[in-house]
Amino acid sequence: MNKDNSFDCIDAGTENCPCYLALTGDCLMCTRLQGKDCCDCNWKGVCIYNEFIQGNCKVNNPRRDFEAAIVDKKYYTDDLVIFVIQVDKGFALKTSKPGSYLFIRGSNQDSFYDTPISVMKADAEKGYLHLAVKSISAKTKSILDEDEKLIIRGPYRNGIQGIREVFDKKNRHNKTLVIAKGIGIAPGLLLADYFNNLCQVDFIVDTEKISKEFVKDYLSEGSSTVKYMNLNELTAQGNIKNILIEKKYETVLILASDYFVETLGPLVRDALKDAVIAVSNNFHICCGEGLCGACSCIDNEGRTIKMCKCQMKQE
Ligand SMILES: Cc1cc2nc3c(=O)[nH]c(=O)nc-3n(C[C@H](O)[C@H](O)[C@H](O)COP(=O)(O)OP(=O)(O)OC[C@H]3O[C@@H](n4cnc5c(N)ncnc54)[C@H](O)[C@@H]3O)c2cc1C
Ligand code: FES
To answer: Which ligand is nearest to the CA of 105?
Structure first.
């Protein structure tokens, strides 16, 4: 398990560590909690084994479902709704970190309706969270039916692959570009808010399946510049490459489907050799805890990687 340290666990060292995987000897980071009799991990934070033993071998702060009142609900299109929900201020503060998402379901639904939804804006002063939900099928349609309250669980942190490197690289001069299509804009808006005072975050946005009015409402404050572009147009890739070379971005986020991650990722790398690249976590995420296996993929060495927990290290 993670012998060559090719990934970090997003929850390691947080208030949600040790987690359920420690109970069964499956911690992603700690060799002692994997059943070995020696410490052979590369984790540089607080010792997970020590925390587990000191905490009476229990899960630290297990995430629980709770009800959140809907204080506002706005339709931008027939199938795109922004919910503003009330949570406590501490919870709102925790979810303000880029990459945060929650599990959400309608108040009368069973837990198998739980849907991962990104935190788009976290107003810690009021305890308000803004969530954009695009209605597609059973789960998201049932969320759109709600007017009074939602059941939520969180916060979960692994909504963006590469977010660890984005944090490591952040400094006052860092230039960041977010390329977003559709609902992928939601985690990009949270990131722009979070880094607002630290550095400039520019956007290239494809508004297909969402609406320009929605982007304008949420990007009107702050210093971000926004270019609207149809990423499917033949000229789009050339235009993006020119922008990357001209502006010399140090961090680029591609928040879109895997198709665009796979086409634009190499283009960004080609234009900016040293840039940090981070992308949407588009895996199927069902428990978020590294347990159900919905998000699993197999690496080159045949190991199972739980993509709801793992931050893959960039080469
Ligand atoms: C980290 C993360 C953040 C997300 N943030 C948002 C958001 O802010 N707003 C938003 O509208 N949507 C977001 N999504 C996508 C949303 O979870 C799916 O659209 C939803 O689960 C679809 O369920 P459905 O029953 O309506 O439709 P389905 O017809 O069941 O699915 C529609 C599409 O969503 C995919 N999907 C279904 N279930 C999941 C799942 N558990 N995890 C990931 N993809 C799934 C399907 O493969 C298909 O491509 C996010 C997904 C992830 C993983
Ligand atoms: S979503 Fe359940 S293991 Fe990752």
So the answer is: 1
- DSSP E strand boundaries for 162-306: 176-181, 201-206, 226-228, 251-255, 276-280, 296-298, 304-306
Q: Is the pTM of this model over 0.90?
A: yes
Helix (H) or strand (E) holding 194: helix 185-194
Architecture of domain 66-156: Beta Barrel (2.40)
What atom of ligand 1 comes closest to residue 156's alpha carbon? 1
Q: What is the pLDDT of residues 107-144, one digit of tens each?
A: 999 999 999 999 999 999 999 999 999 999 999 999 99
The sheet that has 101-106: what strands, in order across it? 115-118, 101-106, 149-156, 66-77, 80-86, 128-134, 121-123
- To test the pocket of ligand 1, the residue of 118, 136, 210 to mutate (highest count of ligand atoms within 8 Å of its CB) is 136
- Nearest atom of ligand 1 to the alpha carbon of 139: 25
Distance CA 31, CA 37 (A): 8
For the chain, give every domain's residue range.
66-156, 160-280
CB atoms within 10 A of CB 203: 23
| CATH 2.60.40.290 assigned to 160-280 | no
Output the six-digit token pair for 205. 């946005």
Nearest ligand (C-alpha, residue 82) = 1
Lowest mean pLDDT: which of 29-43, 60-74, 287-301? Answer: 29-43
Whether residue 166 contacts residue 278, with contact meaning beta carbons closer than 8 Å, is answered with yes
